[in-house]
């Protein structure tokens, strides 16, 4: 297993369980305890978890993992979500894409299309698409967020106000019928709202693990969203509660 995959699994396990000991992680990853100890120390030094005697505990509540550590979580589900979301994009459309692992998967699918304009504030998405001559790429400027590779803030919001998007896709960190769409960062939430104001068809892309969660900053109520594209692990109860707000739910 590659080191990046290993550390991503450690972070995911510790974040979800709240804590883990070295021996359990070694068994989970099929590596030596010495390897786990080195990985835990590196993650502690990066501020992503707290090293303890014999293991580790999670950092702040609702820890936002950097994008590079989130990319392997629910990868198959995110690929299916991206394929389903791409079917909502008509030929010749102007498409808004915020940052995130699932929107990044969608960008990879749309990169195979022609005659699309893609407007994004995510530098990783821009880097993937800039080499695609058949894609007209517009990059929104702003303050760089290292956790999500997004450019956010007043400059991004002003730039988005000058565009009309046929469809816009945003990622979220939490989604409930009561609190709507939420994310970890207040400035990111504000720029997500700018994407939604600029479009005729606002769409949320998220895997089902975000359903039922509430994070720090509110983006919008579900009544502001036209579509939700998620995976088939969304429960019937969750789906019914979301559709009752007027959102069209697509499961892939």
Please explain how this structure is put together.
By secondary structure, the protein is an alpha/beta fold. It contains ten helices and 15 strands. The strands form four sheets. Strands 6-5-4-9-12-14-15 form a seven-stranded parallel sheet, with helices on both faces. Strands 1-3-2 form a three-stranded antiparallel sheet. The chain is globular. The protein starts with a helix and ends with a strand. The model has no long low-confidence stretch (mean pLDDT 90).
Please give the order of strands in the largest beta sheet.
6-5-4-9-12-14-15
As a percent range, the share of helical residues equals: 25-40%
Number of helices, counting only DSSP H or I runs of 4 residues or more: 10
Based on CA inertia axes, which overall geometry fits?
globular
Q: Distance N terminus to C terminus?
A: 28 Å
Instruction: State the major sheet.
Output: 7 strands, parallel
| Uncertain runs | none
Share of β-strand residues: 15-25%
The average pLDDT score comes to 90
What is the ordering of alpha helices and beta strands? HEHHEEHHEHEHEEEHEEEHEEEHE
Structural class: alpha/beta
Structural Rg: 19 Å
